[in-house]
C-alpha cells in the first residue's frame, strides 16, 4: 500500500508540473537510487521498475548465493540458508532476486525521498524555465503586474512565471497598478541559486526596435530594415531606417499618414519623441538628417578623430542642440561622430558678443551649463530669446533667468 500511495503522490507532480512520462520516470529512478545508496551503500545490484501511470513501483535486490559463513558483502551476497528461506531449491552461485518494500527503507528515508523528489522536480522546472526564457531574450513579452515594489515591479505571466521589471529598466513616466498588463523585452535571465530570475526592460533600444517590427508590417516583413536605434527613455529617440526597394519610402511607411503608425509606439513609450531618419552611407548627409529638425548649412568631417563640425544659422542652433542637449547627443550616438555646432552668419550687432563663461564671476557655473545645453553660450544669444521661452526650454526658474538677463544687459550698456 505504501508503494501505491507514494506513487500516487508522484503522479500529482506529473499532472501539476506537466512533466512528460520519460522525464518523471528518470527523476523517480534517480531519487530512489540515491535512497538505496544511503541505505545499502550501493545501488548497482538493484532493479527499479516504475509505472507512474498505473501508480505502481517495484524495487528488486539481486544477490549471489554463497556458502554459509562466507558472506563478505551483505548487500550483494546472501548465505545459502537465508536464500533457501526464500526458495528451498537455491544453490551456491545462483542469483536471488528479492523485492524491497519502501517501508524497509525507514520512515525517515521515505520522507527524505519525497523531499528529494520535490527538489529534483523544481530543479527540472527551473532548468526548463531558464532555457525557455533564454530563447526569448530580445523578444517582446507581456505580463501582468502582481506587486509594485520601490525598486522593481513584479510581473506574472499566464503560466505563473515571475518576471522582474527593475526601476532602472522602467521609463521615467511609467506608473503601474496591480493587474495592469505591461509590455517590455526579455533582457536577461539570471540564475539566483538554482532559481532563474527573468529581467524585463522597457528602456532598451531593442524594445523600440521590436515595437517597430510589431507595429509596422513592412518592418516585420523585412521590406524596411531598422539600421540603428538610440534613446533617452521617455524623452527622445532617433531611429535610422532603410529599404532596399526604391519604391518604398521607409520614413513615410514607419510614420504613417499623419503619424498614425508611429503614434501607438509613442504612446507605449510614455510619449517619447521619436525621430525616424532615412539611413544613408553618405556620412555628411547622414549627420545632416540625424540633426533633424534643425536645418544644417554644411558639415566638415574629421574621419581620423570621428568628429564633425556642423555649421548652422543662429536660429537653427537651439533646434540642433535640443532640450537638455538631447537632440545633438542622440545624433552623435546615431552617426557615431562627435558633433560640434558652429554658428555662422552672425548679425552685425552680435560682432561684439561675449562668451557666457566670461561672466563666471557673476553667474554660477551650473546656470551657464543649463544655457549651453540648449545651444546658448554667448550673451547676445540669450538676450535675443524670450524669457518665457527660456523658462520652458531650461530647468531654470524665471527669477534666475531675469537675473542673468540683467547682468548681461549691464555689460552692453557699459
Task: State the gist of this model.
The chain has helices at residues 2-17, 21-40, 80-86, 107-134, 205-215, 217-220, 250-255, 260-268, 283-290, 314-321, 326-335, 365-373, 379-383, 387-393, 398-413; strands at 46-51, 56-66, 77-79, 95-99, 140-148, 152-156, 162-166, 181-192, 195-201, 224-232, 236-243, 273-278, 298-302, 307-313, 338-344.
Classified in CATH, the superfamily of the largest domain is K homology (KH) domain
Spatial strand sequence of the major β-sheet: 5-6-7-9-8
Assign a percent range to the helix content: 25-40%
By oligomeric state, this entry counts as single chain
Q: Which structural class should the secondary elements be placed in?
A: alpha/beta
* DSSP summary, beta strand count: 15
CATH class call of the largest domain:
Alpha Beta
Which sheet architecture does the biggest sheet show?
Answer: 5 strands, mixed, barrel
The proportion of strand residues reads: 25-35%
From the alpha carbons, calculate the radius of gyration and give it in angstroms.
36 Å
Number of domains: 4
CATH architecture classification of the largest domain:
2-Layer Sandwich
Q: End-to-end span in angstroms?
A: 106 Å
* H/E element sequence: HHEEEHEHEEEEEHHEEHHEHEEHHEHHHH
CATH-defined fold name of the largest domain: GMP Synthetase, Chain A, domain 3
**Silhouette:** elongated
Domain Transcription factor NusA N-terminal: 6-125
Keywords: Cytoplasm, RNA-binding, Transcription, Transcription antitermination, Transcription regulation, Transcription termination
Protein name: Transcription termination/antitermination protein NusA
Pfam families: KH_NusA_1st (PF13184), KH_NusA_2nd (PF26594), NusA_N (PF08529)
Amino acid at each position: 500500500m505504501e508503494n501505491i500511495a507514494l506513487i500516487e503522490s508522484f503522479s500529482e507532480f506529473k499532472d501539476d508540473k506537466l512533466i512528460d512520462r520519460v522525464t518523471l520516470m528518470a527523476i523517480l529512478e534517480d531519487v530512489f537510487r540515491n535512497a538505496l545508496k544511503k541505505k545499502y551503500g550501493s545501488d548497482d545490484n538493484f532493479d527499479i521498475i516504475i509505472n507512474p501511470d498505473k501508480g505502481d513501483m517495484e524495487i528488486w535486490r539481486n544477490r549471489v548465493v554463497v556458502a554459509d559463513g562466507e558472506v563478505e558483502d551483505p548487500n550483494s551476497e546472501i548465505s545459502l540458508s537465508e536464500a533457501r528461506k526464500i526458495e528451498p531449491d537455491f544453490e551456491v552461485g545462483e542469483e536471488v532476486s528479492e523485492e524491497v518494500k519502501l517501508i524497509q527503507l525507514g520512515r525517515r528515508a521515505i520522507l527524505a525521498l519525497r523531499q528529494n523528489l520535490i527538489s529534483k522536480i523544481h530543479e527540472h522546472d527551473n532548468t526548463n524555465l531558464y532555457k525557455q526564457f533564454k530563447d526569448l531574450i530580445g523578444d517582446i513579452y507581456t505580463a501582468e503586474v502582481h506587486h509594485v515594489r520601490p525598486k522593481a515591479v513584479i510581473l506574472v505571466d499566464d503560466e505563473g512565471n515571475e518576471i522582474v521589471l527593475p526601476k532602472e529598466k522602467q521609463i521615467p513616466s511609467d506608473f503601474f497598478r496591480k493587474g495592469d498588463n505591461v509590455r517590455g523585452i526579455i533582457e536577461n535571465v539570471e540564475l539566483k541559486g538554482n532559481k532563474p530570475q527573468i529581467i524585463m526592460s522597457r528602456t532598451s533600444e531593442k524594445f523600440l526596435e521590436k515595437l517597430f517590427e510589431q507595429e509596422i508590417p513592412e518592418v516585420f516583413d523585412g521590406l524596411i530594415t531598422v539600421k540603428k536605434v538610440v534613446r533617452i527613455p521617455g524623452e527622445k529617440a532617433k531611429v535610422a531606417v532603410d529599404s532596399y526597394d526604391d519604391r518604398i519610402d521607409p520614413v513615410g511607411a514607419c510614420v504613417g499618414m499623419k503619424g498614425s503608425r508611429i503614434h501607438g509606439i509613442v504612446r507605449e513609450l510614455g510619449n517619447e519623441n521619436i525621430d525616424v531618419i532615412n539611413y544613408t552611407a553618405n556620412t555628411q548627409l547622414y549627420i545632416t538628417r540625424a540633426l533633424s529638425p534643425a536645418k544644417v548649412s554644411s558639415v566638415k568631417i574629421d574621419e581620423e578623430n570621428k568628429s564633425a563640425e556642423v555649421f548652422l544659422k543662429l536660429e537653427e542652433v537651439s533646434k540642433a542642440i535640443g532640450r537638455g542637449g538631447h537632440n545633438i547627443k542622440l545624433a552623435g550616438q546615431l552617426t557615431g561622430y562627435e558633433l560640434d555646432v558652429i554658428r555662422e552668419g552672425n548679425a552685425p550687432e552680435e560682432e561684439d558678443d561675449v562668451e557666457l563663461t566670461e561672466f563666471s564671476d557673476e553667474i554660477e557655473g551650473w546656470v551657464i551649463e543649463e544655457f549651453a545645453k540648449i545651444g546658448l553660450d554667448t550673451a547676445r544669444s540669450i538676450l535675443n530669446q524670450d524669457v518665457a521661452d527660456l523658462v520652458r526650454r531650461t530647468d531654470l526658474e524665471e527669477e534666475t533667468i531675469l537675473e542673468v538677463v540683467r547682468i548681461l544687459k549691464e555689460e552692453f550698456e557699459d
